[in-house]
Amino acid sequence: MSRRKFLGGPSAGVLVLFGVVLASGACERRAEEQPPAEEAPEAAAPAPAPAPAPTLTDAEIAHVAVTANSIDSAMAELAKTKTQNPEVRSFAETMITDHSAVNRQATQLAQRLNVTPMDNDVSRQLQQGADQARRELSAKSGAEFDRAYIDREVTYHQAVLDALDKTLIPQAQNAELKALLEQVRPAVAAHLERARQLQPRLAAPAAT
Length: 208
What we know:
CATH topology: Ferritin
Distance between the termini: 69 Å
Strand content: under 5%
Oligomer: single chain
Number of domains: 1
Number of helices: 7
Helix content: 55-70%
């Protein structure tokens, strides 16, 4: 079988789910930092219409999945070099193991189907956001790093979960690719829950 080439258009919806999240870098919770409003506005502006569902080919979906897994594995490798917290280190080691395993499965599937994952705007935005996040995390150390890393993992895995549910699984046309994404989903949800459980244990002590 000849190697197939896939074409696809812009993927704005997933850019919203992924790119904006990753561009926040360490993902410290912005809501806690905002001072309360002095007075409520007289009338709330109407909510913007939701972005239309993006259109992705299977080759683009595969590339997004591989990129997302590679990014989290690389961020976990950074965490292993910086954290002194055993729970954070254990979490990072799990991320490396699980995401690397998914990428091996995705690569094997692509080879079996004779499909080359196709680079696209979503994958590039993912990588740009990850590069910024890595720079911001690299500047932190100690407990501050641990909090920022785990906060980012919560936001990142929620974004991945949303993308799986709203875009990647529904739009996958190949049955084996769809099955792999569905198989991965419970692990992503478990990662999210584990990161959420870590957050309160890493919270900064209250000022006295």
